[in-house]
Structure formats: C-alpha cells, structure tokens
C-alpha cells in the first residue's frame, strides 16, 4: 500500500490559525494552506519532510490566515491562490492590522484565483475547491482527494499566463479512504468543532454561512476528517449530530 498523505497542522500567530502542510510522500510535492504567520516554522516542516511547495492557498484573507503569504511565497516561489471575492479584503490588510493593533505584515500582489469546482494538484493528490461564503465573501473549503492524474512539474494555467499547480479541468479522483486514508476537508473558518465562523465582520453573512455548510459541507461523508481554521479537528458526522448551529 502506498504511503499516506503527509498532513502537518501547525497553529501559527497570536490567534493560532491552523496552517496545513499537505505533502505527497512519494513525489515530495506539497501545498500549504493558510500560512498566517511563523514562516520559519513552516519552512522547517517542509525541510524536515523534504517537500517542494507547488501552491500556497488561503481559505480566506483575514490577517490571521494571510500574514505569512508574502514571506512563504518569497521563500518558495510557489503561487498564491485565493478566491477573487476576498481580494478586496486582502487589499485592506493594513486596516485589519490597525483594528487588531498589530504591525501590518508584508503584502504581495495576488494574481492567481480559484473558484468553485477548481482543483489544486500536487503529486498524486488533489484539493477540490468549494466556495463557502459567509465568514467572508470569498471563503473557500478544500476537499482533499487522491488524484489518478498525477500533476506534471508545472500544470498550464488555462488562460496561458501562469504555470502552477492550479488547473480548471476536473481531476479523476478516488476518495482517500479507498486507499486506506481518511477523507479530509480543510474548512477554514467556515466550520469548527461545535461552532461556525463569525459573521459580524466585513462581508460576513449568517444566512450565507449556514447555506454553505448545509449545501456543500454536510453533503460530504460523515467520516470526513475536518481541519478547521482554529482549534481541534472534528468530523462531518460529529458536527451534523452535535453542532448547535446546525440543528
């Protein structure tokens, strides 16, 4: 049986954002999700596993999830992917920093975007993008699956302007649990253990976040392992049964 997906979760920054490093143990390709801070610690994990970053993805652009984007991009050269509906929020990172009373982190020009149904590929794995607005307009969640179409060293962007791990054509996939692994969802700040993301900040919508969870996340199998943006892992089944916001 093939080795299982490398999935390291490191809480970073003063708000302990869960940064995920997801690596293929065979090809040593990886993606990094939500590098909110502590780039040196993220790079150390990448070095320990001998991983090359194919893409950096932010589930949304609140400062605690994007504070390390520019630094990690500079260190790895990997493209940064967000949903375009959150670009305005990223463009006001200084305002977010002032609101929290912290220094504004380094910023960068983001030119690569993902949308509902897109796929981010690395090695033999694929992350299917779900647009899950509510916490922010451009919040996304990632369904991590095996990809039977292993990515080449650089997949061509459909618009012909960039080359990176992101492609628009659907991958041929099989669930992780069919190869002895647990299916995974990187939920960002949309769904937490026993809670949901706050909706009282700019662009938030209680109605939209509930719709996103019910229409997209709760359609996943109950044994899907959920890594939220903060706090402990959970499962779709546990949240379906016990989350008070979903009753």
What does this 3D model show about the protein?
- The chain has 247 residues and is an alpha+beta fold.
- The chain has a domain at 6-124 and 137-185: Ribonuclease Z/Hydroxyacylglutathione hydrolase-like (Metallo-beta-lactamase, Chain A, 4-Layer Sandwich).
- The protein contains seven helices and 18 strands.
- The strands form four sheets. Strands 7, 8, 9, 12, 13, 14, 17 and 18 form an eight-stranded mixed β-sheet that branches. It has a six-stranded mixed β-sheet with strand order 1-2-3-4-5-6, with helices on one face. A two-stranded antiparallel sheet has the order 10-11.
- The longest helix has 12 residues, at 206-217.
- The N and C termini lie far apart (40 Å).
Quote the beta fraction. Answer: 25-35%
Determine the CATH topology of the domain at 6-124 and 137-185.
Metallo-beta-lactamase, Chain A
Number of separate strands: 18
Helix share bin: 10-25%
Low-confidence stretches: 151-164, 166-180
Morphology call: globular
Figure out the total of helices: 7
Mean pLDDT: 89
The H/E string reads: EEEHEHHEHHEEEEEEEEEEEHEEH
Rg is 17 Å
Task: Give the termini separation.
Answer: 40 Å
Question: What's this model, at a glance?
Answer:
The protein is α+β, with helices and mostly antiparallel strands. Helices cover 22% and strands 30% of the residues.
Provide keyphrases for this structure.
6-stranded mixed β-sheet, 18 strands, alpha+beta, 247 residues
Blueprint of the fold:
Blueprint: E1 6-12, E2 17-23, E3 29-33, H1 39-48, E4 52-57, H2 63-66, H3 69-76, E5 80-83, H4 87-91, H5 93-100, E6 112-114, E7 119-122, E8 125-131, E9 140-147, E10 155-156, E11 163-164, E12 166-167, E13 173-174, E14 184-188, E15 191-192, E16 195-196, H6 206-217, E17 225-228, E18 234-235, H7 236-242
Parallel strand pairs: 3-4, 4-5, 5-6, 14-17
Antiparallel strand pairs: 1-2, 2-3, 7-8, 7-12, 8-9, 9-13, 9-14, 10-11, 15-16, 17-18
């Amino acid at each position: 049986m093939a080795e299982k997906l490398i999935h390291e979760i490191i809480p970073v920054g003063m708000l302990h954002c869960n940064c995920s490093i997801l690596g293929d143990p065979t090809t040593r390709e990886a993606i990094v999700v939500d590098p909110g801070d502590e780039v040196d610690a993220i790079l150390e994990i990448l070095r320990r596993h001998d991983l090359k970053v194919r893409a950096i993805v932010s589930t949304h652009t609140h400062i605690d999830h994007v504070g390390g984007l520019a630094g990690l991009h500079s260190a790895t050269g990997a493209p940064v992917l967000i949903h375009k509906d959150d670009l305005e929020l990223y463009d006001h990172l200084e305002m977010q920093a002032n609101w929290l009373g912290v220094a504004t982190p380094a910023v960068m020009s983001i030119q690569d975007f993902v949308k509902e149904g897109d796929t981010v590929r690395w090695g033999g794995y694929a992350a299917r993008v779900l647009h899950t607005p509510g916490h922010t307009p451009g919040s996304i969640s990632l369904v991590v699956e095996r990809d039977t179409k292993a990515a080449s060293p650089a997949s061509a962007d459909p618009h012909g302007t960039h080359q990176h791990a992101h492609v628009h054509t659907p991958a041929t996939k099989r669930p992780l649990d069919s190869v002895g692994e647990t299916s995974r969802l990187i939920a960002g700040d949309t769904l937490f253990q026993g809670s949901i993301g706050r909706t009282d900040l700019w662009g938030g919508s209680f109605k939209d976040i509930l719709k996103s969870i019910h229409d997209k996340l709760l359609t996943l199998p109950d044994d899907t392992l959920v890594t939220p943006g903060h706090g402990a892992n959970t499962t779709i089944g546990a949240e379906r049964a016990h989350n008070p916001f979903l009753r």
